[in-house]
Amino acid sequence: MLSDSMQTSQAEQRCDVLLIGGGPAGSTAATLLAERGYGVTLLEKARHPRFHIGESLLPANLPLFEKLGIRAEVEAIGMPKWGAEFVSPWHEHSQTFEFADAWDKSMPHAYQVRRSEFDEILIRNAGRKGANVIEGCRVRDVEFLPNGEGAIVRADHDDGRSETWQCRFLIDASGRDTFLGNRFKAKHRNPKHNSSSLYAHFSGARRHEGKKEGHITIFWFEHGWFWFIPLADGITSVGAVIWPYHLKTRKKPVKGFFLDLIALCPALAERLRSAELVSDVEATGNFSYTCDRTHGTNWLLLGDAYAFIDPVFSSGVMLAMNSAFAGADAVDTCLRQPERAPQALKEFDQVMKHGPKEFSWFIYRVTNPTMRDLFMAPRNFFRVKEALLSVLAGDIFGKTPIWGSLRVFKAIYYVVSLANLKRTIMASKQRKLNIRYVEDSQESGYR
Ligand SMILES: Cc1cc2nc3c(=O)[nH]c(=O)nc-3n(C[C@H](O)[C@H](O)[C@H](O)COP(=O)(O)OP(=O)(O)OC[C@H]3O[C@@H](n4cnc5c(N)ncnc54)[C@H](O)[C@@H]3O)c2cc1C
Q: Is 296:210 a contact under the CB 8 Å cutoff?
């Protein structure tokens, strides 16, 4: 059934595939489907370039850039990222990992990017490849037609006009706005994890020298962890990922609260000693969720529109783009060979669930003392360090045979946890308290 507003008028435009959202997921899928000859319309509520958080990419992004034909453009705006450094107040040394030491030696680096520039490269590429890209146009309403005939979508332009499209297939790539997830009440808070974040840009932060300049640094501290992401233009992105209940204790304006958090992490404060805050401080509330389905008849979800866990392994953009490659294949099969649609959507479903599942095991444990010890003193016993680095590089969808070694790593984790039973029980109790849900305050819903 169509809603009243849409029953009165026929759709003004038609297309094969309509995408909601022109972030990494939507722009990638639009490019791939336009290249295959489909009539593609991409509606993006903002106008690029626009700010977005999520600036640290993974080596596994690079083969995707190659396939999209944008590798040189990304290289031109990116800070080469050869590795990651972990700094723990509970250990006397810091630990650096280099992607060149991962199982597959052919993906030794990634990039740190300003998302305004990166996302613009992706969306302009979609336009060049033939997608009809419309910015400043927010999707407001969707009605699915009977008998699998697609959907009618209504959107508002930022000049006040409304327009409708009829599409054969609808892709929701609306990110953490989770357009269809909300519509279907399919979005659920992750009961196993919960975090919030505050972040800003600084100039004059002290960076490492040479090849290490572009390393991401993760600083653990008592309320969670910080990222330190050096961008190519000399600006450094700094963010705190903290337990939502701690954010709720905030009595000061966001900026003052953020600077107080930094002061609680002396190793980070030292690197920011001569730095100047050059942006507003932004905040996001409880942000771990999953939708209970990845697709339905004539629609599917990509990237953050399906799930978001936690940014500690910088996996979001890679998962979003990878989901777009899988989604484009599935949509192509659904439209060309409808009899094969159930199998194609099943395979898509598996890809969508694989990434969040593999990263989640580590994310749920990354602030646990046993995991911290393993990260801070890695050994390559049974190639476990190489396998771990492959996960950190995002190399989890290809044929790299890391799975046996990862099982060994997990077994070591459980044995060390058992050997330190008292500490493990205490940490588990503390984690339960840390991830407890708190009502979102005004921080929620920001980017
Ligand atoms: C604090 C924090 C730190 C992060 N750090 C990293 C990191 O270092 N590395 C990393 O890889 N990832 C990181 N991420 C995750 C990363 O930002 C996301 O996973 C990634 O942007 C997902 O891409 P997407 O295309 O699915 O969604 P988005 O990039 O969010 O794109 C969705 C697009 O849809 C548009 N849109 C929404 N609703 C509508 C509508 N109704 N109509 C039209 N358009 C609409 C939005 O304007 C947006 O442009 C971080 C996330 C957070 C919260």
A: no
Give the CA distances from residue 98 to residues 101, 103, 192, 216, in Å, rounded to whole numbers and listed in that order.
6, 11, 30, 11
**Is the pTM of the predicted complex or chain greater than 0.90?**
yes
Name the percent of the chain in helix, strand, coil, to the closest 5. 40, 25, 35
For tokens 């899988």, what's the residue?
326
Q: Cβ(26) to ligand 1 under 6 A?
A: yes
The packing angle between helices 403-419 and 384-392, to 10°, is: 110
Cβ(57)–Cβ(318) below 8 Å: yes
Please give the distance, rounded to the nearest whole angstrom, from the Cα atom of residue 270 to the centre of ligand 1: 30
What's at 76, amino acid-wise? A
Which helix (H) or strand (E) element contains residue 388?
helix 384-392
The single residue listed with the structure tokens 């596994």 is 60
Report pLDDT for 89. 92
| Distances, alpha carbon 182 to alpha carbons 172, 175, 187, 347, in Å | 11, 12, 6, 24
CA 292/CA 392 separation, integer angstroms? 26
Element containing residue 144 per DSSP (H, E): strand 137-144
Asked whether 74 and 113 are in contact (CB, 8 A), the reply is yes
Residue nearest to atom 6 of ligand 1 (CA): 54
Contacts (Cβ under 8 Å, ≥6 apart) of 116: 48, 49, 50, 51, 52
The tokens of 420 are what?
A: 């330190």
Residue 67 CA to residue 161 CA, distance in Å, equals 36
Residues 6+ apart with CB under 8 A from 343: 333
Least confident piece of the model among 67-76, 139-148, 429-438: 429-438
Ligand 1 atom closest to 119 (CA)? 29
